[in-house]
Amino acid sequence: MTSPAERYANSKERQVESGTYLPDFRASVSFNLDEFQSQACQSVANGHSVLVAAPTGAGKTVVGEFAIYQAIHEHRKAFYTTPIKALSNQKYSELVKRYGPEQVGLLTGDTSINSEAQVVVMTTEVLRNMLYADSRTLDGLGYVIMDEVHYLADKFRGAVWEEVIIHLPSNVQTISLSATVSNAEEFGGWLDTVRGQTDIIVSEHRPVPLFQHVMVGPELVDLFAEDVAFDRAADEDAKISVNPELRKLVRSNRPAGRPQRGGRGPQRGRAQGPGQSRRVSRRDVISRLDKAELLPAIFFIFSRKGCDMALQQCVSADLRLTTNEEAAQIAEVLDEVAYRIPGEDLDVLEFWSWRDGLLRGIASHHAGLLPIFKEIVEDLFARNLIKVVFATETLALGVNMPARSVVLEKLVKFNGESHVQISSGEYTQLTGRAGRRGIDVEGHSIVLWNPDIEPEALAGLASRRTYPLNSSFRPTYNMSTNLLAQFGREQTRQILESSFAQYQADRSVVGMARQVRSREESLAGYEKSMECHLGDFREYLKLQRDLSEAEKRAAKNRKNLRRSAAENSLQSVIRGDVVDLPGGRRFGRAVIVALDESLYKPRHTVLTEEGQLRRLSVDDLNGPIEIISRIRIPKGFTGKSPKERRDLATALRNAIADERPPRQDAQSFNFDGADSVERESDKLRLAMKDHPCHACSDRDAHMRWADRYWKLKKDTDKARRAIRGRTNTIATEFDKVCKVLERFDYLIPSNDGEDYEITASGRRLRRIYGERDLLTSQVLETGKLNGLHPEELCAVVAALVYQGRRDYDRPDPKMPTDRVGDIWTQTINIWGTLSDAEEALGLNPTAPPEAGLIWPMYKWSRGASLNSALRGGDMAPGDFVRWAKQVIDTLDQFGKNTDLPVELVRSARQAVDLVKRGVIAYSNVLD
Asked: Which long-range contacts (CB under 8 A, 24 or more apart) does 166-170 make?
């Protein structure tokens, strides 16, 4: 029986909710709403926009579902936006089950289902494009639910969220759903500024408590001494200590002779302990979790290859986690997929080995997999048929796929430039997948210990919640032309200054100014401490700094000269030259057996003295090649036969031993440093020696204070520049973008110079969306695309959308046709001019076009199988499908752009049909 206080509270709640749709919504769901859900739904019912920030799995989407429920009963439209197609597909399926296919639609870059429905699920980019096109689909829109709104921090796509929030009609309520962020009040304050009344609802409570563990060898122990869940561990006032049993295990497992981080290491003559780090196989880890009833589990591995290798290791170890009945259910789903995909495509997709893993209850999940494969894994995992998934971190950023446990094999990942430790925000995001609401009583995160992990550092990572939301907004060429067309220059600048990026910049200036004042006081103290009675020590310090810079320039100059000489020497060799390769432990002395004719970074083939064939580029050299001899290469030499290689290696060694001279016209290349740079360094050294302060007995003490002064002054000057730069930052960048558009005749200044007129080229640019929007437009403006066959158009568009996962300096491939080759060359030239103009204005340059997708897309559009299209390259099938859909999206933009020539529009539509077949056309929405 409830208490009088509870009955009174319930009565007040019913009174507040009367006259709204909230009581009916409560009755329609099979669970009681949490307090934060009730608060947020009440805000929506009161006509307010709302920001809901709560942990993964807390049930934020219930608030969005209430907005949809209210929209349906008010006969208004509701859009549910997500950052990724997979999440859109998943949400569409859920809403169809609840409201039926007649009331729900789906819009992504390559899929359109029931687009005029009352409830439409879409990617955020689709809504942005609608707003700029003033689409009639927006008529009657009452609610926009932005799921995973913290994506606006994404470096590449985050600006789209801000564009949508700024441009939505003022009568539309926004429901922003975010992971727990540490600056929710700041973000909510901005939303309130641009959207009107926005209530901020923050919950840090996890409905399923999360407990943290560490696996050391075969032992699974708690991270913390107290039996505390994540909520309490992350409480700032909580004094939580590391489990002493964990410390003891770590000490006994640390390899002999390896010091604890910060320790002194083993001392000479002292015997080391017997501790040895015990490595545990993945099979043993999974078996241990299974025994502890901690499955299903997601293992986060920060590489695609690592995920696939982990799966194969488990299959090779004959690990099986499913019953016969479960395996039969999995086989039924997989057989249906196999029936829909051609047999030869199944082979290139490695379907059979993937199927073998799934039948055992084990799978991998990453962007390299076919989208339909990923969805099957998600579906089978949700049905508890898959017990273990090896996944990359992208799984933590959207798809609803919770588990009982999450396992982190490492706390270090590659960020594209270097290996770095994951942040506390990333740790929270990853481990947030543990604990299934309504299924698990508690969730568990397990870190696999290795000698680089210190328990205290891990405890700090697990108990901090620093996940600030920082804007990545910047005006693009497409955005700028659309805003100018609708609002004019002055109003556009005002709109851009209302962005979250500018809001954050303005708020930060106050703190930075306070910091500069504090540093100026410290500088005055440092300056006094480095005073010298013999002379001006700042003058002496400047000489030292100038000398340091001159020496750096000299070293860089020598390096550039050395590389230039190496490049020239590579261009001068011919077949049969015996060469000495500087700094090449990998090569030593070798003979040139085949020349690469590429003018850019040629990679010649050489045979070493040991009889090994290698590819040689300028990156392998520390200086120029020296031609030391010459031998004759047999006419039919291919290097495929071991005997061929041995015989030629013998001839190479004989030529060197006999000191056989090189050819008469062989050149030598020197790379002596520039005399002027060396002279400057000598002059500065002499000036330092002659300076009065050089003879000071306290010079070292003065220099220590001077170093501190210099470093602090550098930081202070940087802060001053940042303050100047943060005022009107976004509008200033917009002005630079406009200068580029004016430079290439997309904008013309008005007669009074206060505004711009948009040219025909600018009007066409308004309908081109993508990372390389202006480059794509400039290629269109050449007119060269108008006469292309549809498959040639596919190849050209592939170069304009594709971005490889890594930077490879590969020579340009031979193009499929002369026309494609001609356009590729022209595209490179256009990009060079464009990036020069951008860099001159201080803008980030447009990404260069890439050739890696040209051949696969050309072959695919001509009807080749997936196997044939990908043969000869290293592109994963899942990547090909993903990029093919981006090609379709761009072609579709061409096909719907009425400002383009009719011939090109027709060819673009035909090209879409050529690409949209087979594995590309398979629905991403599970039946």
From this structure: 166/194, 166/495, 166/498, 166/499, 167/128, 167/131, 167/132, 168/131, 168/144, 168/195, 169/138, 169/141, 170/195, 170/196
Centre a 10 Å sphere on the Cβ of residue 101 and count the other Cβ atoms it contains.
Answer: 14
Distance CA 835, CA 848 (A): 9
Contact by Cβ (8 Å): 179, 53: yes
| pLDDT at residue 806, as a whole number | 57
656 three-class SS: helix
Query: Between β-strands 443-448 and 405-408, what pairing exists: parallel, antiparallel or unpaired?
Result: parallel
- Contact status, residue 537 vs residue 554, Cβ threshold 8 Å: no
Mean pLDDT of the chain: 82
User: What is the amino acid identity at position 55?
Assistant: P
| pLDDT tens-digit readout, 551-592 | 777 777 777 777 777 777 787 888 899 988 876 556 688 899
Amino acid sitting at position 126? V
Whether the predicted model's global pTM rises above the 0.85 cut: no
pLDDT tens-place string over residues 909-919: 999 999 988 88
Helical residues (DSSP H) of 168-301, grouped into ranges: 184-195, 230-233, 244-253, 282-291
324-333, 469-478, 535-544: range with lowest mean pLDDT:
535-544
Lateral strand order in the sheet of 577-580: 613-616, 604-608, 589-594, 577-580, 626-630
Q: Please, what is the angle between helix 371-382 and helix 877-896, to 10°?
A: 120
Do the beta carbons of residue 121 and residue 144 sit within 8 Å?
Answer: no
Cis ω before 296 (30° cut-off from 0): yes
In terms of Cβ atoms closer than 10 Å to its own Cβ (0-12, 13-18, 19+), residue 258 is middle
Tally of CB atoms within 10 A around 564: 14
Question: Which has the closest alpha carbon to 138: 92, 76, 49?
Answer: 76
CB 147 within 8 A of CB 81: yes
CB 52, CB 59: distance < 8 Å = no
The string of pLDDT tens digits covering residues 426-444 is 787 788 788 877 787 888 9
